[in-house]
Batch of 3 targets.
Target 1
Amino acid sequence: MTDQLKKYLTEDRSVRVQAVRMSATWKAVQANHDYPPAITHLLGELVAASTLLAANIKFDGSLVLQIQGDGPIALLVVECRSDLSLRATVKMREGHDVPTDGNMQSLLNPGGNGRFIVVLDPQRKLPGQQAYQGIVPLEGETVAQALQHYMKASEQLDTRLWLSADADHVAGMLLQRLPHHGGADAQVLSEQAATETWDRLGALAGTLKRDEMLEADIDTLIHRLFWEETLVAFEPQPVSWHCPCTRERVANMLRSLGQEEVNSILAERGQVDVACDFCGKPYEFDAVDCAALFSANQPAAGEQPPTVH
């Protein structure tokens, strides 16, 4: 299995280490799209980050990382569920050139109006419960830098991320300093020891190179970096592609547009063609299908729309 996430704890339980690597899942993300290299790298880094963060979700639901841009990229979004199944997509803005050396700022925030949003969405919400949304300041030039600032400010957790992607692989590593629990006397000593552990592992992981992350498997990287450390290893978790689009969901989306809008598209084009933004799967609705959408016995609308072409 090449697509997996592995978790470790340091012997003193003060630092969490996570590493992810995927190829087949990443190929599935790109299967129906032809992204320029700079966008491939940026989306891949967001995919790796979402997987590393979703692995720590303590509920049955989804983590969504969404960046709305004012540059060549209009929208960048990754959804990763708590079972580490994910989907991702990019919406590019017409008429904008994509620089080969583009980064998060130049691709998403050249005008200073980009917005980075983290959404935690429980699958089974309690009455009145809403999905949690956090705003990530678009600080730094990379996804890793922006999320590190966010985790420190919002979760009060020291977190470091290393993310890398090319057309074939996505890889990422996370170090996170865990809260200390203990008595007052022990806390002074253990805090000092924990700080030493955190600084030491950070210095070791800081030697990681982008190409090294893409070329080496997780076991090789962990051994190369931390061979002198005693790490407690947990069972690996598989990472997979998942897109929940169905014809029924697309039908609900069309109902949400309203009969007048659907009939207008039908009159202009002869049928309504819909493609899922994530997997690219096409759906066709002819005149008979569209008439059936608005019959009295159909359920109410309630799904988020793919793109109507």
Note: The radius of gyration is 22 Å.
Target 2
Amino acid sequence: MSAQLPEIRRYGTAAVAAAAAAIRAGGIVAVPTETVYGLAADARDSAAVARIYAAKGRPSFNPLIVHVLDLAAAERLAVFDDDARALAARFWPGPLTLVLPLRGQASGGAGVASLVTAGLDTIALRVPAHRAMRALLAASGAPLAAPSANASNAISPTRAEHVAASLGAAVPLILDDGATEAGVESTIVAGRTILRPGPVTAERLGEVLAVAPGTTAHVSAPGQLATHYAPRKPLRLAAMTADADEWLIGYGAVAGDDTLSATGDPVEAAARLFDALHRADASARARIAVAPVPEAGVGVAINDRLRRAARR
């Protein structure tokens, strides 16, 4: 007997209504954002959040990003300081996640399931710009915990078919609104520290306030696990040519079996990154090689993903 496949529905009023009904019933739904496809559940419902972890096989100590419609909704969940408000004013809605102190019981309580924060006293929040995620937030009336809609440590999905291939029947419904725009996960900032590079670059953040790359001693935000974003096959970085058993993903002047950007455009490369890794992982070659991408702008995020993918 063949495995059950998820239902894929094109974005529209009826599809959003069905997805919102599933969320309200405690289910999980895959939905596109401007970064990658997310696996969404009501962040207040611990059983629903547990279904996300179960579907992904996600480590329990890795927190989830919570998506909300606007700053007012975010402030009901977290305590904002002037720095956080300045970043939110500039980059929300958009691909920036802020890690902030969780609003405590003394001030009304956030009401977020503890699984969402992995037991931490901080919460990762984002106001998305994508029409599908915003429509689902509005229709469901819930803050949505939504990590990338793929099996844990696998390649993040930028198309509905990637979600179906990675999760299968573990996700019953996928909202399909085509390929995502940014192609890499959101930038994560805690205070003035960049915990994960992404589409909102350090240069753009620096126009608002002084920020610096950094790490923490424990996993305090999504995407900090060393082996995140890994394809099944071994991955070699900074390759100028391919060995006989390698599928080469090119960039700029380095041509390959596939390319992130023939013109050397890092934004195009970011949007194509996970698509290219999926194709390489599905190829007949035993290994994957990737051409060097300059460590500048969104190239920092691309290289961050590639280094994690290569670390097995």
Note: The CA atoms of residues 33 and 133 lie 6 Å apart.
Target 3
Amino acid sequence: MTTTAPAREPAVRKDPPDVARGPRRRTGRLRRVTLPYLLLLPALILELLVHLIPMVIGVVMSFKELTQFYIRDWGTAPWSGFDNYKMSVDFDAPVGEALLHSFLVTVAFTLLSVALCWLIGTAAAIFMQDTFRGRGLLRALFLVPYALPVYAAVITWVFMFQHDNGLVNHVLHDQLHLTDKRSFWLIGDNSFIALLTVSVWKGWPFAFLIVMAGLQNIPKELYEAAALDGAGMLQQIRRITLPSLRPVNQVLVLVLFLWTFNDFNTPFVLFGKGAPQAADLISVHIYQASFVTWNFGTGSAMSVLLLLFLLVVTGVYLALTSRERTGNRSRARERARTGLRRRKETADV
């Protein structure tokens, strides 16, 4: 009887684990490194096309004598150097004087609007911290001006500010008898009040939303301890709420300032192409200099000056706030060290 040995399977050559996994690890590492940049690439391309390239073109246009005669081929416009900038900052000339007036109006409008938006939004957010029936509905109603499209909201105010059949004159003159006659709100000096009213109405819900979110991070134990110590509501707001909201308010004020200073939609929809002198914001003024008088070189120079001003203000504001935060951290660390030394001294005694 013969036995047959089982056939051996052909030997399969196996690579060492490190050799087999090396290319896979490198591929996975490469994917992890490149994936975030690939995801950011569409946003970067859109940012380049929508903001950066037009910004560079605007800077180039500010150095050219670009008028309606060179619109078809603006590259052939003659080079004017800094003449457009000199004309814009020459406050004794009509162009510079008008720009200075528009700048001062914009500064006054921005300061009042930001202050009122922050004040109303903060007061509403603090009021909404207490639990009561209908709080959710009231929060939703507060956010309606912010949720509405800008054009729909401002056009509604245009009808309300009408001289003959507007709701504002009907309430102030016909119902409350606060004025001797119907007022013109969209022309004359009252246009500034109308513009400020619309800006605050549609801007304060944003401040309300941000401050309300910041209030959620303040521990309730602080208020309970303050109440046990006899602190009233105003003292709690001054000693606890406002200091705790300082980082939130620093960002909120900067965002409101930039939005309000650059606001174009509100005055344009409210007054049209020709804003009254009392409400001649710099955004509408630059639009008129560019697209109404067809002097794109001067309008571009004004836009560049506005950009430089906002960059300087933002840089100074961030420097001051960062220095304040650094000082607060240093004082906090010093108080902590002092407390530790006192505890050690007490323990030794």
Note: The first helix runs from residue 17 to 61.
